[in-house]
Structure formats: structure tokens, C-alpha cells
Amino acid sequence: MLFFHTGFAQKTASPVTTAKWPNNLPWWKPNNLRVIQTNLPAYEAATLNPDSLLQDLLDCSANTLLINAGGIMAFYPTQLDFQYTNPYMKPNTLAEVIRKCHQHGIRVIVRFDFSRVHESIFKAHPDWCYISPKGERIINTDMYVVSINAPYVQDRAFKIIGEVIDQFPVDGIFLNMPGYQVNNPYEGKYHGIDQNEYDKKAFAAYSNGLALPTAENKADPVFQKYLAFKKATVEDWSKRLHELVKSKNSQIAICTYMDKYVDIIRHESQSNTSLPYWPYTASDNVGNAVNSFPDHVISNASIQQISFQSRYNAVEPEEVGIRLYENIANGSGLDISLMGDLRGYEDERNFGVVKKIYAHHKKYEPYFGKYKSVAKVAVVAPGAWPSGEPMQEYRGIQLMLKEAHIPFDIIEDAQLANQAEKVKSYQLLILPEITYLSADAIRTLKEASQQGTNLIATNRTLFDSPETLLELFGAKIVNKDHDGAGFYLNPDQKTVFKRFQKQKMLFWKFNLGLYDLKGADQTFLPVLAKGRPGPPEIIGGHDPTGYFAMGVKNHPKSKAVILPVNLGRLYYMHGYEQHKNILLDAIDSVFPEATHLVTTNAPERVEVILQEYTRNVPANLTKKTTDGQILHLVNLTGFSGNTYFEPLPVYDLTFRVKSAFKPSKVFSMVTEKPIPFTWKDGFVEFKLGKLGAFEGLVMDK
User: Fold this and answer.
1) What is the pLDDT of residues 58-73, one digit of tens each?
2) Residues in Cβ contact with 481 at an 8 Å cutoff, skipping those fewer than 6 apart
3) 577-590 and 567-574 helices cross at what angle (nearest 10)?
4) In this structure, are residues 104 and 51 in contact, taking their beta carbons and an 8 Å threshold?
5) Which residues pair with 430 in a beta bridge?
6) Taking the model in full, what pTM does it have?
């Protein structure tokens, strides 16, 4: 392969300059990662040049490399007969890459993937591999998906990791595709719950003899037991891995997509598989992880490829820029995953964006990575990787808040009980179709409500706990799955629905739950019947049904609002502001201060993220107080709904930011110039003459 390369100018190598952190501090703890992953196809091992790779990392201001090592295939001379060796592998390449990176202060995390084995391993050990309820294998060319409870994962994987750690001075290990497999993601095909004999035996032992379920049905108690079994077995494996790695070297970071026994939680901003596109993917991912797992370092990877079927084509540079800016604004470092080496790359359009933003992060490194949220509102996420209708409801609620410039945190539903004190500190908690909560999570919600946290729940939230639904919201389900197409809502009480002075009927579609709200203290939004949709001569008949789309229950110190409708999904899919205004009016009625943290004339497509920060330097390692606030602005005006263009410059922006201190100065990270400001009655006010793609407005104490 010839090395034609236009993305990076050749420069004289120079060390990455970083602050001197204590030697006993785990190297990843400063939370200043600038990761580049070269996700190497086998054939690139033949041409990978350690010197050119190092130079590209330096030109990008990267301080961490993530590169292939083993699992599916070994990129080093393995001595283990149960690990397939990459036939293009050069014996000294991995060692040279690590040595040269270390000489220039760049950490190296090595990648393992134990989700598949080569067909030669499968033929020797077919009992190690996945088998579907129909008796099918999941196969990608000559690679077979394995079973997590079979000997390859339970034993041989540890030997492979141990061999690499013993041979190479790695700084971390990254585990790709951990856990149970039910899909062939490279072909978009669902296969079902693994029926391997080892899985059957392990589940029977865990469940006192239950048979392994064959269908994923959340209403099935056996499947709920299976979910608990999966969680327990994955955590047990992770615990044993943690013990192995840390017994060899406590300074080796463990990085993967889970949280237990992991040092760096990795997430991914991937391209959208369907419309509407979601431009807030990095804010969503990082916001969820940093608040759900505050003791972890988060690294959200911008995935370069458009899809598994389109590996060699990258997403648009403007989208990558938004992802990376959102990463650092929300508390992650920078992370980009490339399909192969940077030299001879098939789509280099993003390289300039990566180089620019990584350099920005390096320049202002002390201002990133050590944040404290100021948000008084939190949105509960339906898991770490939401999908389907719950995802649409969840994203729609986020979109409403983002466009209204209301700061909010995100907490994963499964972490409510683990973050109980944080949950109770919010003034408003929004639950978008949050179901199947644990008893501890429900207890946390009740205690938060008792202590003063207002609640807003949408669609089918808590349908599986009717006693909680009645206690918190005064609601009983009559029909939770009622098609709302053709129905209307009447915003008749204008003292609450102040944004609807010129509307009497709001159209509906998707779910419109029919709930008995007699246990609520107030009801709003009468539901009007379908009536006659046409022809025009006979339309009408939209009479009150006796049901309401909103109920409010008063508690001694808080209010709880139930909106048993697909409010978020409707806005996410169709974007009519009237549906956003329902939520905004509801928020104003229970917690009007939500809009007071940041007041601005910035367009809705300017993302506003406010953080308290402590300078991220060794001297502040144990410092508890903050050094000021940063108002991050991400310009999404170039996002058209299905295409990313250059953002439009926005002029003459005004900001009023709540601040308990009078800043000593306010300055722009982009222009590096001071910004005039006033401070009065606990608010800082200032103007920004021009916003480009991104801005960081620092308010120092």
C-alpha cells in the first residue's frame, strides 16, 4: 500500500506536554483523554508503520491510542492454540507501536474482542459457540459468535489477556462487544436467545431449575429472571477479569461499555439508522453516563463509519464536530474510532475537524474534565442504549428541554437507587415512559417526592406498578394502549396553558392512554373524541370523552404530574411546537424556576450547557470547591433534519446566567478575549458578538 496522505502535515515529533500528576494516581483519573482508535482490519497489519502512526497521533494532539491486540485474531505472536493468528501480522509491530508511543507520552490501550472465534476454532470446539432457538449459528464469513458461558469466554479469554499483559507494557485493555449476543449486527438479523448447553446449565443452576427462555418477553417472569441471570454472569466475569488485570498491574485501565469492575466506561455516537436524526447523541450518551456513574471516567467514541455495511465512508465533518464538542462540554474526553490506520485512509474529510478540536482540548485542558452540574432538572433514561418507542419518547423530552435551554441531567433508570441522594437533590424529575423499575428505585422516587422533588411522568410510566402510579400520581389505568389518532386535547385552562392563547384543540396521534384520574387533585387537557374527520361538510363531533390527558397530585412538599400520552415521541417524530409547549407549560406550573438558570436569545438550535468547573490540574486533585462556571455553546444551526451543513454564524447573543459569585473575569475560549459583564442579584449578564461552531465562555471566580 502506498502512503498517500493529505489529512496531516508532517512535523517534527515533539512530546505531548501534560501536567505532572502523582505517580500513584491511576493515569486515566485526570479525565483528560484524547483517544484515537485505529480499528485495524487484518490486512492493514502488513503495512502499518509505527513511525507514521506516531506522527499522526502527535499531529492530532492525541494522548491515547486504542489498537488491536487479540481475541478474534491475534495481532502479535501468540503461543495459544485457541487464538487464531492474523496472517498479515508482523511480529514486532505491536511492541514497536507501544514503545514509540510511550517515548512521546502517549498511552496505549489494546483491543480485545471475545464475541467471535475463527472457523478453525469453531470446528475444534463447536460447543463453545452460539446456537439459536432454531438451531442456527451466527456466522460472519469465517467467524462464529461464541456463548458467554462456554469455556472460551469463561477460561480461554483470561489466558489471552494474560499473555498480552505479560508480553507488552500496555496501559489499558478495551473489550469490544462484551456480553450476550442475540443479533448479527453486520447483517441486521435477529437470531434470539442463545440456547447453548452451557447457557442452559448455568441458567438452571442460577434459577433453581428453570428452563432457558426462547423469547424476549418482558412480561414473562422467567425472562425477567433471565435478565437478572445475564447481569449476574456478566458481572461475575468482569469481576474475575478485574482481579486478573489488577493482580498484574493496578495501573492498567479496564475499558468497556459496562460499569461494574471497569475504570473507563466507553460509549458510542453512531450514525442514525433511521429518521429523524439525533444530533444530541454525544450529550445524551455522556450526560447519561457521567450522572449515572459519577465515579467513572467516560469516553464517548465518535464512530467514523456510516454503518457496518458502509465502513469506508465517514459521517459528515460537521456531525463529528458536534459530537466532539458535546463530549467535552458534558464531561467526557475526546474519542474517535477510525476504521484502520490514518495513512491511506478512504475518507479523510474529518481529519481537519479532529485535529482542530483535539488541539482545542489540549490547549484548554485544565478547563475540562472536572465538572459539577448546576442542573435542577433530571430526565430518567430508559437504559444506557435506549431503543424503540421508549427511546423516541425519551429523546423527544430531551429535545424539548434542549430547545428551551433548560439545563438538565440524565440518570439511567437502573441507577436511580444507586444515585438516591442525587435524585433527591433535583427540583424536578421527568420520567419518559419509564417502566420495570426495581423496588429500590420506586422507593427512591417516593422519598424524593416526599422531600420536595416534583415529578412529571409521560406515557406508560409505572404501568407495571399500579399501586405506585396511584400513590404518586393518583392515577389508575383504564387502557394504557389506546390509539390517539384523530383525537384532540383541549388546553382550556389558560392560567396553566399560557402558550395556547390562540388554540382550542390540539391534534393527537400515537398512544393516548385512558386513565382514571379521580385520585389526582387537578385534571387538565380534556380528551375530545374522534368525531367525524370528513368530508368537510360533516366534520365535527369532537365531544369530551370524560378522560383527561394530564393529572396533578399535590404532595406535602411537591407535585406529581401524569401525562399518559406519547408526548415526547410525537414531538421527536413530527416536531410540532404545540406538543413541546404542553411540557413547558407543565414545567412552569410545578417548577417555574427551571428556566431561570440560563436566559438567552440564542436560537433553539444553539445547544447551551452550563457547568461548574474546578481547574483540572494536579494541585486541585482533592479540591472540593469550584473555580467558576463555563457556558458551553454548540451551534447546531447547520443541522437540517437529515443533513449536516456548516453551522450558520449567530450574532448578538445575550445571556443571563445564575451565579452565586461575582466573576473576576469572563472570557471566550475561541477569541481568547475578555467579555464585558455585569453581576447583580445573583446573575451574570453578558453579550457574545458572534458564535461560530462552538464556544466556551468561562466565568472565573
Assistant:
1) 999 999 999 999 999 9
2) 460, 511, 513
3) 140
4) no
5) 379, 456
6) 0.94
